Amino acid sequence: MLDEVELFRMKKLLRTLKDSRGNGTSMISLIIPPKDQIHRITKMLTDEYGTASNIKSRVNRLSVLGAITSAQNKLKTYKETPPNGLGIFVGTVLNDQNKEKKISVGIEPIKPVNTSLYMCDSKFHVDDLLALFEDEFKYGVVVIDGQTTLFASLQGNVKTILQQIHVDLPKKHGRGGQSSVRFARLRVEKRLAYIKKVSEIISNLYLTNNILNVEGIILAGQSDLKNELSRILDTRIKVIKTVDTNYGAESGLNQAIELCEDVLKDVKLSKEKKILQDFFTEINLDTGKYCFTMKETLHCLELGAVDTLIIWENLPDVKEEESFVDWIAENYKNYGCSLVFVSNKSSEGTQFVEGFGGIGGILRYKVEINFGDDEGYISDDDDSFF
Questions:
Q1: Which residues contact residue 169 at a Cβ distance below 8 angstroms, ignoring those fewer than 6 apart?
Q2: pLDDT tens track for 232-242
Q3: Is domain 269-363 classified as CATH 3.30.390.30?
Q4: What is the mean pLDDT of the chain?
């Protein structure tokens, strides 16, 4: 099983391939499912080579034939189809300076791929392999109170608001007499109608072809409305946890995710938030066992003081020759630390990226960092990590 760093590197490679562009139709995407045979694909490429030989344009013909030959050569490095299938991406792409660069990549998917694909285009088709990175478990989250109900999904580090409705429920009537009885009855009727409407929306959103399309539903909110709701839900809806929140709408959604970390322990967003909360705690307590910015972090890495290195997955490159993120993914173990990639999908992640530059660490021991004299310290312009 690939660890988090290896998964990150593969995902980044696929994203790079996805963004690549070329001239003509000389970029080949070949995806082979697990049960397909290498010899069948080899024959198919031979047939495609024969077909491409008839392309009228000499330049385009030679480009396509060259790409097919590259695909054949890459395929020869595999004796049989890997357990999860195989993706081969070859061709000539244009870099940022509009110069041509040959690409020849073979990728073994992280999960079995069901797609069979052969495509000659001016771009690579990698979406079927990228889709495998979506976390297996997807959850529904419903936050209900007397004013709004928010319906959302949480998968991996991505939370998506699916729908939100608003309501104006009458407040309790303090006066006596027949009018109060009538008012109370109307209030109960509107409340029940509201809960019933929410229940129907839940069924529409989280059931597909009469089957639950999420792992389960989290019901959250400020009042006992969520408890009444759980009692009238479609029996096919699986409620995995009910939690009280201090807020409604999106703030309630964020709090519900925090309160359900035991249930969502396999969801990357919860893990990210926990790591970043630990990082912020060190800063708030002023323990000295933290670092941030490229300069401080590289200095602490050189000292061997970093216990957990935290990096934003989209950290901008500081050098054109090589991505720092790629370099650290290759070398972090040399510094005796663990490496955690985070997104900016949570409030903590956004704060880490915008306030701390997207790079930092939790240290093993307190380190006095003083850059009053730059001598002996590593700067952002240093080439030492290449």
A1: 146, 147, 187, 190, 191, 194
A2: 999 999 999 99
A3: no
A4: 87
